[in-house]
Amino acid sequence: MQRDHSCESGRHYLRHGRFELRTPHPYEEAAAVSAICDDEAQKWLGWPPELVVPAEQRDRWLSMELPDPHFYREPPGSGDTYALVDREEARVAGILILSTCPDHRRWELGGGLAPSHRRRGFGAVLFRLGLTLAHEHYGLPTVHAGTEEANAGCCGSLLSAGFTASGASAVHRLPDGREVEALWFSSTVPDPVSCRRRRFGWASWR
């Protein structure tokens, strides 16, 4: 655990090795969204076309080198989106979204990696940091995640991160109207902790 005040004022920062999950500034959020707007990611996500960042624009965002966050002048973004930053490359490597489902009865975690960081074992890092955010910063006892049954890479990442498969597959409708067979996963801890009650802001895991 490293001492820092970075979880104050609604900002969250978590570290693991070369990666950092953090509340994004506006241009970090744009890059994080761009990370999952390519055809491969959208095969699984099924966003409507108006939400997909065009290729030239997303390539520009993802190639942008980020300055040290302490030098940012813009206020951080707000909401349920977090940027996964590769500190070795000083670039956004992915996105994590922690939000309530439409009926507000449960919290769900989702996200994905930029093309440059896929198939390298980093999906488990993304989702493990997401579980730390949910259980040790938001104070949530249970968080859920779902993915298409055929998406073996994502299923493996969720299991490696600490999720448990919740049961049989079920039909799920994507935002673009497609219906897919989805598998659901969950993680529950007995004693969740809110970072507002923690002494230090940085969180790390091994």
From TrEMBL:
PROSITE patterns for this protein: GNAT
Residue ranges of the TM segments: none
SUPFAM superfamilies membership: Acyl-CoA N-acyltransferases (Nat)
Coiled-coil segments on the chain, per record: none
Domain (N-acetyltransferase) ranges: 31-190
Annotated InterPro entries: Acyl_CoA_acyltransferase, GNAT_dom
Name of one Pfam family that matches: Acetyltransf_3
UniProt protein name: GNAT family protein
Organism: Actinocorallia longicatena
Origin organism lineage: Bacteria, Bacillati, Actinomycetota, Actinomycetes, Streptosporangiales
